[in-house]
Amino acid sequence: MNDLDTLIEGDKLLLLDFYSEDCGPCKMLTPELEKVEESLDNSITILKIDIGKNTALTTEYSIKYQMRGIPTLMLFKRGKLLWKHSGYINKETILNHIKQNESNY
C-alpha cells in the first residue's frame, strides 16, 4: 500500500485535487481550497495532484473513478469515495458537500 492509499483508507477526510498548472479553472480553485482548509481547522487533508507530473496515477484514477476533466475534486474517507466534482466550484459549495457527506459516513 502506498502513501496515497493509506490516506484514502484513513479516518480523516481526504480531498484530492487533480489539476494542471496551465488550467485557468484550476488556478481559480486554488484559493478556494485554501479557504476550505482554513475553515475546517485541519480536519481534512487536501492533496493537489498535478496531472502532468503524475500521469500513471491520473490514468488509474481516470479509469477507476471516471474522471473526465480538470480540475476534479474527489473526497474520500475510510476508503470510500464520498463525492466527486469536475470544474470550478466555490468554497461555500465545497464546504456544503464535505459537511453533507461527512455526516452521512
TrEMBL record:
The record marks G24, P25 as: Contributes to redox potential value. GO terms for molecular function: protein-disulfide reductase activity. Residues 1-103 form the Thioredoxin domain. The keyword Manganese does not apply. One of its GO terms (biological process) is cell redox homeostasis. Pfam families: Thioredoxin. The keyword Electron transport applies. The record marks D17 as: Deprotonates C-terminal active site Cys. The active site is at C23, C26. CDD domains: TRX_family. Disulfide bonds join C23-C26. It comes from the Bacteria. Keywords: Disulfide bond, Electron transport, Redox-active center, Transport. GO terms for cellular component: cytosol. Belongs to the thioredoxin family. This is Thioredoxin.
